[in-house]
Structure prediction request, 121 residues.
Amino acid sequence: MAQKRKPNIVKKPLAVDTKKADVVAAPKAEAAKATTKSKLPDKQTAGLLFDKRNYIIMLAGILLIALGFILMAGGGSDDPNVFNYDMFNTQRLTVAPILILLGFVAEVVAIMLKPKQKTAE
Prediction:
């Protein structure tokens, strides 16, 4: 007969600290100094977030994505008893997904591209 194993749990009595800790008052934090100057730049630019070039790249990306989805569409058969092999052509399996991927890459580039700084005259 197998012998039952005892768990390795040992109960230790809780250590009670009999000394009372001296109460020490924390130093008061200094009030935050109000600054009269705001941290905004001297010249505030009103208008669009991106430059014209960013928006052109975004538009090109959207057009690439739309063209990819248009090229991927179709290829079905009107008759359910006839199989249409046009569904597996290169245009739908290769060209269209590549165009969609390039469109998404163009979108990321357009968002991450830093706008040109205007020179102060």
User: Anything to note?
Assistant: The first helix runs from residue 52 to 72. Residues 61-76+85-114 form one domain.
